[in-house]
Amino acid sequence: MNNVHMDFEAWLALATIATGIIWLIDRFLLAPKRAKHDEPNGFIEFARSFFPVLLAVLLLRAFVFEPFRIPSKSMVPTLLVGDFVLVNKFSYGLRAPVFHTKLLDLGEPERGDVVVFRYPPDPTKDYIKRVIGMPGDQITYADEHLFINGDPVDLEQLGVYDGPDADALSTMHQFMETLPEGMQHPILQVDGRRGPDVSMTVPQNKYFVMGDNRDNSADSRVWGFVPEENLVGKAFMIWMSVDFSEFDVRFSRIGHILH
């Protein structure tokens, strides 16, 4: 069984259970004994009012969509600090709230998916990266070049990156990376900085993930693979974007579909 940690989902589940028990006690034990015009006390009324709301939020968050905020620059330029993304919770199967046990298998990640997962060294934290290596793949990253099963991944140079979240102290170069299946996405490399070189085979039921900001990302090159049971879902859309340094809403990013 997966470790249970008291994250927001756990507290939400506890609150739903507590208010649900109070609702049941009132409905089947207390309400039949109350006089017709008597009102329940404030505590019971509070529980009765909030139980259906909490239950709806728990079911929606656990099985359908969950919002996440991007806190770091590891996925620039695809995702910026202050982007809020929606994550499809049923892309990779329905899981029980809190315990994360898979209840129904609905699919597996595909290479190139932007995924949210519970960070393997500390499952209380959620990370977001891109799936690069599938189970059984041989992944090599050497001298800033990515190889999948011995074949170099195509890179098209796009020029210097000077967009949002650019490194103020170093030059960042933007490339368009084309994965073996033909999916394309932008990546960044930073002058004077290099991600770690690795060569490893992805075990069964695990995935190799990387940040698009290749020289500013702690990912599978550093801490290893993502087990299938740690997957939370597929990030698919930016629903809000805020530049907190300027307290400015980036309207142009709202509704952007992730690739």
Topology at a glance:
Blueprint: H1 8-30, H2 42-63, E1 65-69, E2 83-88, E3 94-95, E4 102-104, E5 114-118, E6 126-133, E7 138-142, E8 145-148, E9 151-152, E10 154-161, E11 172-178, E12 184-190, E13 198-201, E14 206-210, H3 220-223, E15 226-227, E16 231-243, E17 248-249
Antiparallel strand pairs: 1-2, 2-16, 3-4, 5-6, 5-16, 6-14, 7-8, 7-13, 8-9, 10-11, 11-12, 14-15, 16-17
Helix pairs in contact: 1-2
**Largest sheet data:** 8 strands, antiparallel
Q: In CATH, what is the homologous superfamily of the largest domain?
A: Umud Fragment, subunit A
Outline type: elongated
Task: Write down the CATH topology of the largest domain.
Answer: Umud Fragment, subunit A
| Category from helices, strands and their pairing | alpha+beta
Rg result: 22 Å
Number of helices: 3
- Give the number of DSSP strands: 17
Could you tell me how far the N terminus lies from the C terminus, measured between alpha carbons in angstroms?
33 Å
Unreliable stretches, pLDDT < 50, 5 or more residues? Answer: 1-6
Along the chain, the helix and strand elements come as HHEEEEEEEEEEEEEEHEEE
Give the rounded overall mean pLDDT.
92
Helix coverage percent: 10-25%
| Percentage of residues in strands | 25-35%
CATH architecture of the largest domain: Ribbon
CATH class of the largest domain: Mainly Beta
Total domains? 2
